[in-house]
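Renewal narrative, Specific Aim 1. Our central claim is that a sequence can be written position by position from structural information alone. The example that follows is taken directly from our test logs and has not been curated for this report. It begins with the structure tokens describing the chain, in the order in which they were read.
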């Protein structure tokens, strides 16, 4: 059986490392996984990954995901996996969560495993932890990539605290610096030292003030990880509704209305490559190709 799954991206509202509580919102970047499975006498796993602007992408997350699903399926198979993504890697833009979600969704369908959305997300989180691409498991990110909208979660308990759809009329401008920042490089202690300020961001998010939460979270992440906060301030001066740092950075995210989009975009282009995306409220989808 050959199956395709498409999962959308996300950006941070609140980083979960300081408190174990995180928040993210869906955006219309995408990761697509095509998984083909055939019964075989010898287990074989072939993986090809194509990410825009990237070469030699690490395949360990994809391989760990497939091996876990094969363990559950209890059979011997030949598995061919192809992944296509426009989500930049190691920039705080949830590339790993989206990839894990897409592979779990496509491969479980191809192997005829009946798993709920909650089971799929939890499996993606477990495999992300095993693969070393997350500190808290990034339940907020994996959930948001899978179901879209705005999500606030307790990542330690893997519990949804709030979920709602986002106004799709806004524009989201993302500045992507050339440098990468991998999870293994994150100073977890430095982030947790800002737990009091992070709690203010969480409280704002739970009260529905997600844009204030994003700004406060940006202060936390930039201060803890020595990321330049200047682009955030410049975007806010150009009438962005909110701006902050996504994930562990270094990407900067600014939210604005369409009439101010060009001003914000031009300001952020001073600091790096800029892309424009829209909010995503749609769930991931899967379909049988053959």
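The sequence written for that structure reads:
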């Amino acid at each position: 059986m050959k199956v395709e799954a498409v999962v959308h991206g996300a950006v941070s509202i609140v980083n979960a490392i300081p408190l174990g509580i995180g928040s993210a919102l869906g955006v219309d970047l995408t990761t697509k996984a095509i998984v083909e499975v055939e019964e075989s006498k010898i287990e074989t796993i072939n993986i090809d990954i194509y990410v825009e602007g990237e070469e030699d992408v690490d395949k360990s997350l994809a391989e760990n995901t497939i091996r876990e699903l094969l363990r559950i399926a209890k059979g011997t198979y030949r598995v061919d996996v192809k992944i296509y993504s426009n989500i930049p890697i190691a920039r705080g833009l949830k590339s790993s969560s989206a990839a894990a979600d897409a592979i779990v969704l496509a491969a479980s369908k191809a192997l005829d495993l009946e798993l709920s959305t909650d089971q799929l997300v939890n499996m993606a989180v477990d495999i992300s932890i095993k693969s070393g691409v997350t500190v808290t498991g990034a339940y907020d990110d994996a959930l948001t990539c899978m179901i879209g909208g705005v999500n606030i979660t307790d990542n330690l308990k893997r519990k949804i605290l709030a979920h709602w759809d986002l106004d799709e009329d806004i524009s989201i401008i993302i500045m992507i610096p050339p440098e990468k920042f991998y999870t293994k490089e994150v100073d977890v202690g430095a982030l947790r030292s800002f737990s009091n300020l992070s709690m203010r961001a969480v409280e704002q998010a739970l009260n529905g003030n997600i844009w204030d939460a994003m700004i406060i979270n940006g202060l936390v992440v930039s201060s803890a990880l020595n990321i330049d906060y200047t682009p955030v301030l410049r975007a806010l001066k150009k009438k962005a509704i909110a701006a902050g740092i996504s994930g562990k950075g270094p990407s900067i995210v600014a939210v604005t209305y369409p009439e101010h989009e060009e001003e914000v975009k031009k300001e952020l282009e001073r600091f790096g490559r800029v892309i424009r995306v829209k909010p995503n409220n749609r769930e991931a989808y899967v379909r049988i190709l053959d």
